[in-house]
Amino acid sequence: MDDDQEFCLRWNKHQSTLVSVFDTLLEKGIHVDCTLAAEGQTLRAHKVVLSACSPYFESVLCQQYDKHPIIILKDVNYAELRAMMDYMYRGESSLHIKKLSLPNSNVTIYCDVSTPSPRPFVTKPLRKQLFDSLHNLSHPGANVTARLVAERLTPRVTGSWNASTGS
């Protein structure tokens, strides 16, 4: 047997153990070192988990020198923040999909109703078609745009115009 040997040690279930440990640390409030705030409610978290899961949080937290920064998330509702934290710590989050009727229509669509504002769920094959339809509402095309510009910006001439006098 050689005096110089190399061994490889492998930790079985390493990833699942880390996920479980971080979740337990969060639930018990151990080693939490930052606070996220939305809609006047707060959630405590670990900077290392936030940074590992989100380039945004990594960027924000790299610029913070406070021991326990508080990050206020404007225009994020608390239910969405909670779902995001579940996703980061547990690797999963739940949607509550429900079939809803559109107002003043006989059309029904599927929406995620797990947050206060229902969000439509669009299947992958329809996403491009939906995007194009919505995009075309705000960009009607070159000919229509030219006509609209001409109608709105070209002064209307009333009466007759005399080419020789310019009036």
Automatic annotation (TrEMBL):
Record's GO cellular component terms: nucleus
Biological process, per Gene Ontology: axon midline choice point recognition; dendrite morphogenesis; gonad development; larval lymph gland hemopoiesis; larval somatic muscle development; nurse cell apoptotic process; R3/R4 cell fate commitment; R7 cell development
Pfam families for the chain: BTB (PF00651)
Keyword Cell membrane: no
Signal peptide: none
InterPro entries, A to Z: BTB/POZ_dom (IPR000210), Dros_DevTransReg (IPR051095), SKP1/BTB/POZ_sf (IPR011333)
Domain BTB stretches: 32-97
Predominant place of localization: nucleus
Family matches, as SUPFAM superfamilies: POZ domain
Cross-referenced SMART domains: BTB (SM00225)
UniProt subcellular location: Nucleus
Keywords per UniProt: Developmental protein, Differentiation, Neurogenesis, Nucleus, Transcription, Transcription regulation
Alphabetized PANTHER family for the sequence: BTB DOMAIN TRANSCRIPTION FACTOR, LONGITUDINALS LACKING PROTEIN, ISOFORMS F_I_K_T
Biological role stated in the UniProt entry: Putative transcription factor required for axon growth and guidance in the central and peripheral nervous systems. Repels CNS axons away from the midline by promoting the expression of the midline repellent sli and its receptor robo.
Name of this chain's protein: BTB domain-containing protein
Species for this entry: Euphydryas editha (Edith's checkerspot)
